[in-house]
Amino acid sequence: MARKVKGLDVGTMNLVGATQADDGSIKIKLMRHCFLDVDVSPFTKKMLLQQKVQYVEMGKKVYILGESAFELANIMNKVIRRPMKAGVMSPNESDAAPIFGLLVEAVIGKADGPNIPCYYCVPANPIDADFNIVYHSGIIAGALKNLGYIPKEMNEAHAVVFSELADQDFTGIGISCGGGMVNVCVSYKTIPAVAFSTSRAGDWIDKNVAQVLGTNSTRAAALKEKGVNLKSPKNREEEAIGIYYRNLISYTLNNIKAKFESTEGIPQFPDPVDIVCSGGTSLVGGFIDVFEEELKKMEFPIPINKVRLATEPLNATAKGLLLAALNDEEIVQEERKKTTK
Ligand SMILES: Nc1ncnc2c1ncn2[C@@H]1O[C@H](COP(=O)(O)OP(=O)(O)OP(=O)(O)O)[C@@H](O)[C@H]1O
Ligand SMILES: [Mg+2]
Questions:
Q1: What's the mean pLDDT when you consider all of the chain?
Q2: Is the pTM of this model over 0.70?
Q3: Does ligand 1 have an atom closer than 6 angstroms to the CB of 225?
């Protein structure tokens, strides 16, 4: 049996793990990237056991992981804790590193043998924020090593190209519209020609919608996720969501244009290419329609054939990371050696 290589999408809102099952199909496990700490007491432990909540005990605290943390935080009126902020690991979350390891284990498990690579994603360099990914990537690599994997880093939107543009020879534009950031990769035959990230993404919409409506971001996010269609807003709230979505999309497109025109040595795209959108932020109704409208308004430097949604927008990055791991030259050669022995 082939060793179980893994793909791990580390996102501000969700952790998504991808594994290949024995029948060749891809298995996805998604977990909300958050936790909640409560003081240990016989009462809390009994309650958590009764509720079948996923938790771990460390020192004097019980840490509740993932979706359960989110639900319990609402019931207990406590603030959820998130290891990541705006696309990267937050250095201010002091408990985050050990908890992060536990969350990752819940999603992909431990390595089931030596020398098993796990591809994980990192954002590309941001054009409108001041951070680098050194700390972020180091924390993820450390957690994966502790679980027995060989960590391998890959750009998030490049992973989207891997999962969604195989039929186009891995040529086209992959976009991951997440919670903390939008990641873009313009790829020519698997090679990224332009890759960058921006901080106008889901959280940015929530923050701005909350501000104009005089509410908080959590409520704004709930409004946004409950089934809005950008093309047919039913009230003032949905109109506000639509305005910020349109801005986010035109901002992203204008940045692709600017980057493309200012980068040297860009390949020519003789044939029109597809734009594939993925990530939770692309799930809103009418996303592709608005994207096409904004694209038509500008002179885009790359000929575009079609704008489409990824087959499974929330899983596209993890799937691409797994495909990259499965195509890892070192593994392929090792497996080949084994079968020719
Ligand atoms: N049905 C929906 N409609 C609109 N937005 C949604 C929907 N479902 C989820 N979202 C939004 O998608 C975002 C999370 O998407 P995703 O899981 O792709 O992000 P992430 O990978 O965790 O973050 P990042 O890549 O930016 O670090 C959040 O802003 C969330 O509010
Ligand atoms: Mg993401």
A1: 92
A2: yes
A3: yes
